[in-house]
Amino acid sequence: MHAGGDAVGGRITSSATSVLAALGWVLLGLGSLASMVVAVWVTASMARAATDPDSMLAAIWPWLIAIVLTLGLPFAVAVWRHQGDARRISLTMAWLPMLWNAGGLLLATQVVPDIMAHALRTQGAHVAADRLGDSHSATRVMSALGHKAGDIITGKPAPADLDALNLDDRSHGAGEVDVSKALSIPFAEGDTAILVDVTLHGSDDSISLPYLFDTGASFTTISSGTAAKLGVSVPANAPTLTFNTASGPRESRMVYLPAIEIGRVKIEGMLVSVCDACVNERTEGLLGLNVMREFIVEMDYKNERMLLLPRVQAELANRAKDVEPVVQLKVEGPAEVWLGMVRWVVLIENRGTVPIKNLIPVVEFTDGPRLLGAEVDEIAPGATGRSLVEGKATLEGSGDSRGHYTLGLSRAYW
What is the C-alpha separation between 371 and 138, in angstroms, rounded? Predict the structure, then answer.
């Protein structure tokens, strides 16, 4: 009985050892598979970042490089080492890819960490984006993982793009004035009203009219009669906006006016409010802040005069403030945040009557960063443009700003 017990115990021990050995090989195989998946992702991202996107090989070249480096080379080593012995080759391939790829990834993090991090941040989402689209949850997760991995590899977050942050030049030429074009305007007799002679330029004609300088008006106004004379279209479905005036808020349709001229200063590409109620026996409309921000205004109440000092105008002035009311912005799909990162496509619908060019949307998070989107070259009237916005949704050390954001325009031109 004792000898039989030893035999049974031996068989049990042998069986347990076999199970553990089999489990070990399975775990090695899974480890090799997992390391190869990660290595393929990283290698393909790096190859894609270094490949010309317009090249005919751009679609397959990164994947070919990744497969050769992560699977092809260790397989070639196993074949060379075991001289065609299929059993030994298969056993070697259970552990060699894990060692090969883990070692390669570790080496890359030490030798080229910045290149590796940049590739993951910029190309980490392409695996899902190419097949599922930029707004799919899987794409957003891959993007977040790429950014997170890049931060871990370099030990610091991605540096801010200073050029991008400086794109918001709505107040271009601040402090710089063209004194040679300064304009002195007297107050109207008997009161403190200020009337300014303004020349409105339309598609058909130009008209000079007296306007009331109104510091409480958000936008300059135009009457429907004047719009008709100038050939300015006022569609029934033109975007409406509630704007402020000195006499209170007004709601009106907003239309594009080719230019406004005051003295020797011509301001092109303006958004104006169609407001017949803003016309009276003395004025044909209100001169609002969207015109006045192009000047430095000095008020001389003692001598009852106003001095307009025109700012030095950029060659092509940013009209983001004027364009914003005629576009509709929204995030495509749910506004998801993964690992503190966003990868959103902002849809920009042009509800105006003229094309809008070189738009850059901005996502502003409450108590968080401002993220600029990719530039959209042009959006025709009635059309919708798409801009990819990618980056951190929270500032370092701040709380979660998930869900608390506003959409706007940082740059746009008529």
Answer: 21
